[in-house]
Specification:
Structural class: mainly alpha
Number of strands: 7
Shape: globular
Helix content: 40-55%
Order of helices and strands: HEHEEEHHEHEHEHHHHHHHHHHHHHHHHH
Strand content: 5-15%
Strand order of the largest sheet: 5-4-1-6-7
Distance between the termini: 63 Å
Largest sheet: 5 strands, parallel
Length: about 550
Amino acid sequence: MEAAAAAATAASMVWFRKGLRVHDNPALDAARRCGGGAAARLYPVFVLDPRYLRPDPAAASPGSARAGVARVRFLLESLRDLDARLRRLGSRLLLLRARDDVADAVCAALKDWNIGKLCFESDTEPYGLARDKKVTDFAMASGIEVFTPVSHTLFDPAEIIRKNGGRPPLTYQSFVAIAGEPPEPVMEEYSELPPVGDTGEYELLPVPTVEELGYGDISQEEISPFRGGETEALRRMKESLQNKEWVAKFEKPKGDPSAFLKPATTVLSPYLKFGCLSSRYFYRCIQDVYRSVKNHTKPPVSLTGQLLWRDFFYTVSFGTPNFDRMKGNSICKQIPWSENEELFVAWRDGRTGYPWIDAIMLQLRKWGWMHHLARHSVACFLTRGDLFIHWEKGRDVFERLLIDSDWAINNGNWLWLSCSSFFYQYHRIYSPITFGKKYDPNGNYIRHFIPVLKDMPKEYIYEPWTAPLSIQKKANCIIGEDYPKPVIDHETASKECRKKMGEAYASSNSIKRTSSNSLRRKVSHGGQDASNSSIAKLFKRSSRAE
């Protein structure tokens, strides 16, 4: 009995979900140790989740209901790279496939492999929290030690909220003031890892190809130029940071959204999303560059400022119930968005008749990525700028297609760009014509992603419907036949959107004033619905939301 117990204690599992890396991985570092020494056996596990990978023939483009082909391919490349890096350390990735529920698959492996210690990176997304609770409850009831370090973000969102009196800070400035400096990354490098233990009769899968997952004929799908994996993440980071002047002068939101052959940003967001790159290690490397130059930009616009923005959204999303929806979300403006499936589909599929908007949406579908200012343009167009369609609809499209799709950041950005929260200057609208032209007057970006417009003269490339028919014929692109006419008139639509937003804001403020007055009356009359102290708390929360 004692021998069996000792053997169990000496067997550890590191459960990968995000955090698909070896460097700065506290969960992996803890799993390789047991008690005071090294674990006798280490089981590095990743479970293929049907929730994200199961093919959906009804989806608007190849992939599953929740992930397009580009993001699935990026994940598989990341898993392949992780397996290769583990093998160089004398280990390997144990890839399992869940029938329905990932938690059930992990719990079964914990039991069957007699695991004594389970280590995995903590997750703050609602789905992840529910999944992890199920596994943790099982492990604790089975006498298995559980270690869940915070390593996907710079800071622990729960700790930031605790420091802020139990509420998430709702401005970037207040978040930064509370956060301070992040913990140092785990810098230890390994020459080897403990061997993998006996897996019994488990079917250990090789990392599948996209084709093997059953998404149908995807031979015509353009392959994203961004390869997944820790190796590529570290290479790309090193390449970006070698240009010290660029790092020192980096200033978001500046940058060219039309640059696609050589993007104007690091394009490290997908590697941070999957945890192929540690945000703490990246932060430290940027700081090393800053120390070697005389001057550099500061947050919120600097490169480190972008990592802090990421943590800001993680913290607010973790501490805000219903963060991913309008209803029941205390920090979200209640706006009566329109429902128009025809306009929505035109936007989603890149058929609005506005080449700048359509090229961005086609880049999204093909590459799974576009510049942040390009994202701003199409989000504004869908919501408060032109179509007045609910931000949740756009969020769902981005969530499915972006290779850097991130629950906290994606929802946060859509709340921001629709002027539903964080940012409220709804009268500032991105023009679907002049904004792109400012960066790319010749329309090279449009010509690449919309080949039917490649011969359109630059005078008409952003407004092809204004080209005389003779010019359209010469360019082999008849508007209304080869390329759609505009689905709306921007000037008219944007004025109507401003009017609707103004009315929604006025209504929202009126509701808040009524709610605040009601609370004041309850306080002054000693209302019996709740104690004075709890009403006061509600009142403070209501006042802050304005």
